[in-house]
Amino acid sequence: MTVRMKITLLITAAGFVSSLVFSCIILWEMVEQPFQLIDSDLKIAGTRVAQAVVAGEAGEGGPGVPDGDHYWLEVRDPASGEVLYRSDLARAYRIDAPHAGRGRTVSAVAGGQDAAGRDKEREEVDFRVYTVAFSQDGKQYLASAGRTVEHLEDEIGETISGVAGGLAFSVLLLAAISYFLAGLMLRPIRELNDQARDISEKHLDRRMPVTGERDEFNTLAETLNNVFDRLQHVFLRQKKLLADASHELKTPLTMMRLALDAIRSGTGGGTPDPQAESHERMTEQVLRMDRLVKSLLDLSSLEIEAVAVREPVDLTFILGTLVEDYRFLGETRGIVLRTDLPDLPDRLDMEGDADKLTRVFSNLLDNAVKYNVEGGSVSVAGTLSGSNLTVTLANTGPGVPDEDIPRIFEQFYRVEKSRSQQHGGSGLGLAIVKRIVELHGGTITFENRPKGLTTVTVTLPRHGAPGMSTPA
Predict the structure, then answer these.
(1) Same domain, 279 and 360
(2) By CB neighbour count within 10 A (0-12 exposed, 13-18 middle, 19+ buried), where does 311 fall?
(3) Range of the domain at 278
(4) Are residues 285 and 401 in the same domain?
(5) Which residues pair with 351 in a beta bridge?
(6) CATH of the domain at 365
(7) Among residues 165, 200, 231, which one ends one of the domains?
(8) Which residue, 124, 141, 165, sits at the end of a domain?
(9) Is 191 domain-assigned?
(10) Are residue 12 and residue 157 in the same domain, yes or no?
(11) Same domain membership, residue 434 and residue 391
């Protein structure tokens, strides 16, 4: 369950409980108030009928006697229990009157027989009855007055239904408002999450925006910025260490290679030197280390600078030149290089770093020729599609196992270590290629296609990436 839903449920539950308590209090007052008003009216009616009975004016339609068709009236002598007066309703409905000074709601059933002696249909009616004590000339009287409350109970039922419906509607409205407000409250968290997701090893310089408000969100943003500052510092130190180490290794490796070349040249002539084979192996290893250090320097430079120059580039010309250069290398193994590049006016023109793009396709062509079969072929094709251009390089090499494809662009990853050692690979070439393509805002993919073709596809935006620099 999301935090937004939790906040919504908590606010709705709190609002429902408070609304329920408030509604119960209001409903209790609404239910009690009508009965209090009726009791006041019945108290007056009981007093008036008691006065009329004492005055001897309680006959049918006597002055001061409430209407007997609407009031249930009964006057008793508490000492003897004798009933001194009953209205028509009191004769029709027998009710046990409450004690003096109290009112209550009772149900009464009409009884009796008609003129033929048959029982009348029994009808149950609810009455509100109030008993009042009346005293005159030292003698006590109990007068009970009542009224039917059927319509009042219906109205109370409708009121309860209305309050329940209003409470249900208010809960739904409160849930909707709470959900909306929770979304507004959590919007800074969503923005922080989106911005933190964009901060990767390639964009460690990005930071969370901090406003002048002193709230929890800005405190969290400042804390995250401090964490990213420390991560960037450590990350850059590691990159710098790698670059410095590679640079320091470059000079002694160059000296060792020159010394070995001098030793090899000193052993020239017709007499074979027994140490020549050892010198040859040492030279190969030093050259391999030299290539590795150069690749490390190139990769470190790309990681630290993280920028490519934006300038007009004729990719058709670059690819055509590289294919001609590698055609001689392919001919030694019977490998045919073919091109399918668009010419004017659809040449592969774009904005980018010509030197870095040359490095990309040089590495890819080098791999396509090296890791190919004898008498195979290499094809280079280019197409334009809207604001992008796509270059596809395919060769007839042995391919790469499907489980290794996701990792071929990782640093120092080799599908077959023996093959890489045979061809002098360092495991950094494709990592450098991918980094240069990403600096240009493009993508690179690798796949094994049917008919024994291994294909690398490079897609580049024709107008470069937003972060590219313009040469002075």
Answers:
(1) no
(2) middle
(3) 216-301
(4) no
(5) 312
(6) 3.30.565.10
(7) 165
(8) 165
(9) no
(10) yes
(11) yes
Report if residue 272 sits inside a domain.
yes
Whether residues 226 and 323 share a domain: the answer is no
Does residue 62 share a domain with residue 101? Answer: yes
Mean pLDDT of 92-120: 72
Residue with tokens 């008993």: 131
Q: Which of 191-200, 356-365, 415-424, 460-469 has the highest mean pLDDT?
A: 356-365
Q: Residues near 304 by Cβ (< 8 Å), separated by ≥ 6?
A: 236, 239, 240, 243
Asked if the structure places residue 89 within a domain, the reply is yes
Number of domains in the chain: 3
Q: Would you call 266 exposed, middle or buried from its count of C-beta atoms within 10 A (0-12, 13-18, 19+)? A: exposed
Side chain identity, residue 446: F
Asked whether residue 196 is domain-assigned, the answer is no
Write out pLDDT tens, residues 258-304: 777 777 676 554 445 556 666 666 766 676 676 666 666 666 666 65
User: What is the residue-wise DSSP string for 430-462?
Assistant: HHHHHHHHHHTT-EEEEEEETTTEEEEEEEEET
In whole angstroms, what is the distance from residue 322 CA to residue 411 CA? 25
Reference 133, options 104, 107, 106, 98; nearest CA is: 98
The residue behind tokens 């640093």 is 411
Q: Rounded to whole angstroms, what are the CA distances from 320 to 36, 225, 239, 325?
A: 104, 47, 35, 9
* Percent of residues in the chain assigned helix, strand, coil, to nearest 5: 50, 20, 30
Indicate whether 139 and 48 sit together in one domain. yes
- DSSP characters over 356-379: HHHHHHHHHHHHHHHTS-TT-EEE
Distance in angstroms (rounded) separating the CA atoms of residues 297 and 78: 117
Distance CA 127, CA 118 (A): 26
CA angle 318, 322, 325 (to 5 degrees): 145
- Tell how far CA 18 is from the center of its chain: 31
- 60 and 81 co-located in one domain: yes
CA 441, CA 459: separation in Å to the nearest integer? Answer: 9
Q: Which range among 43-52, 270-279, 360-369 shows the weakest confidence by mean pLDDT?
A: 270-279
Our separate counts of H helices and E strands in the chain read 9, 12
CA–CA distance from 283 to each of 203, 256, 289, 296, 377 (Å)? 40, 8, 10, 20, 32
Q: Give me the DSSP letters along 12-60.
A: HHHHHHHHHHHHHHHHHHHHHHHHHHHHHHHHHHHHHHHHHHHTT--ST
Q: Note the pTM of the prediction, 2 decimals.
A: 0.47
Lookup: tokens for 380: 């280079």
Contact (CB, 8 A) for 273 and 267: yes
